[in-house]
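User: Hey, quick favor. My workstation is busy. Could you predict this chain's structure for me?
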Amino acid sequence: MLLPPLFARRDSGRLARVAAFSMLLAGAARAAPADDGPPPVTPYRPSVSSPAQLPAPGQLEMELGGLAQRDDGARRNSLPYAFKLAFNEHWGVVLGGEAYVGARDADGASARGVGDTTFILKRAFAVDESTAFGLELGAKAPTARDDIGSGYADYSVNGIFSRDLGAVHMDANLNLSRIGGTEPGSGRTQTGLSAAFSMPVNEQWGASAELSGNRRRGTGGVAQLLLAAAYSPSKRLTFDVGMARGLTPAAPNWSLFTGVVLPLAKLW
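Assistant: No problem, here it is.
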């Protein structure tokens, strides 16, 4: 494993506890009775791109992961999470953020705490069994300390196109964000574009690749390539692991991640 060298000892301990907690949750999900064929989970992680599809209506799903980033001597380790709930086949919400952030810059200054929190309202437009469009309206609340987050609220709109291309599933996103905190001489509007492709390897394993990036006037463009593998011991549980490589100077050099997606409750 390449993850341990990227983490300070405290961060490594926190991630180990989160991993153990995730395994306990996973065990509970696998042990739960399958009454009348409970619906499968709908993973959104680990890609930047969001799928147009919503989770099964009434099923509260949780996504929990660990992310380590390294960039020219600076390090940032975090525990991203998301809770997803669809009200029906057309509308749903996502509450996400970072439960913990441990950052250290190239000069050795460090910061620890919770990250910002994002609220997303999502609308799905199904065309047929293989094609769907989606629209996400998002708002980021500055819940992180200023040395971790920007200290300002951001707002975004994201258009989604999802399609099955034979065995390959594609999710393409085009988004605009209104950035609350900007550097002098830089713009407030950020454009983002991403395309993720995933396919099954066998009944339990899958693989995915993604190109993503964003641009804002007065700042360097960000682009990255992401590669990931997913393991699903059942339709109600998915683990993922992968890496991302920055393709531009403004992007983190390397990112390593792992996570789990599982249902928490069937609310209706």
